[in-house]
Design brief:
alpha+beta; 56% helix
């Protein structure tokens, strides 16, 4: 094979790879919009269930009071027989527990739906004052199932001021960085999330105890489509997208890593930011 043919073949394979990755990226974007739409649609039925559960709690309390009052009108022996026949004491004890568990479960669903909406670019397209900690917590809620089997998360949060940003985009950066950390950890890992600020910056760092990154490729990790993951396990777009978002916010994203000792990504956002008028 001639040099020209070899170069053409290399370019053909590269174009095919880029096309596959772009299609994958487009699918992810579509799934994000779909998730936001589903979260919006779920809101109404969740509202009905929450309202009905609250009313049910009141009705059950009233019925229990009525049963106890009626029991006082009957002979004590007959009342006890009826209670035993229908497991009244057990039901009276178990009902509040069941209702409390149901309310907790519903609250968790509401939190997840709210967090999904936070990741929608449709609802938060403008720069506004945002709480970075809320975004981090939303991300941890979204990734709860992924994290619990792989890594323990430690947090050390400062008393941060609000930051002018596009909250959903900063959430996306947090998501990308935590996902990268999780995917690098095999098992029993630790991820430490720290926040802080000074006169110029509000910052957060995400540190893991994974295998780390070779110094020779550390400068390449923010390039589009560059990935150290196996085929079909990453597009190489997460860090490139994160840098693009942080650049848009006039911020800085830094990385420190040592092979065998994990990695630490730090994102700095300016406390005061100049935004373009639309």
């Amino acid at each position: 094979m001639s040099i020209e043919q070899s170069e053409l073949e290399r370019l053909r394979k590269q174009v095919a790879q880029l096309n596959d990755q772009l299609m994958h990226s487009e699918k992810l974007a579509s799934l994000g919009q779909l998730a936001a739409g589903v979260a919006h649609e779920i809101n109404n039925p969740i509202g009905y269930v929450a309202s009905n559960l609250s009313a049910l709690n009141e009705y059950i309390n009233s019925l229990m009071m009525l049963i106890k009052q009626l029991g006082k009108e009957l002979p004590i022996e007959k009342t006890n027989r009826l209670k035993q026949a229908h497991d009244f004491d057990y039901i009276n004890k178990d009902l509040p527990i069941l209702l409390s568990q149901s309310e907790s479960g519903l609250k968790r669903v509401i939190e997840i739906v709210h967090d999904l909406k936070d990741f929608s670019y449709l609802d938060d397209a403008e720069f506004e004052e945002a709480d970075i900690h809320l975004g981090i917590q939303s991300t941890l809620n979204i990734l709860g199932n992924e994290l619990k089997y792989k890594a323990k998360v430690n947090t050390s949060f400062a008393d941060l001021p609000l930051v002018r940003c596009i909250a959903s985009q900063i959430n996306q950066v947090v998501l990308n960085l935590i996902l990268n950390a999780v995917q690098e950890i095999e098992h029993n890992g630790e991820i430490t999330i720290t926040t802080g600020y000074d006169d110029m910056w509000v910052w957060f760092s995400i540190e893991d105890n994974g295998p780390g990154i070779e110094q020779s490729i550390l400068e390449l990790i923010f390039q589009p489509f560059f990935t150290t993951k196996e085929k079909h396990k990453g597009t190489g777009l997460g860090l490139a997208l994160s840098r693009s978002i942080i650049d848009k916010h006039q911020g800085v994203i830094e990385v420190k890593s040592k092979l065998g000792s994990g990695s630490c990504f730090t994102v700095k956002l300016p406390i005061s930011i100049k935004t373009e008028k639309r």
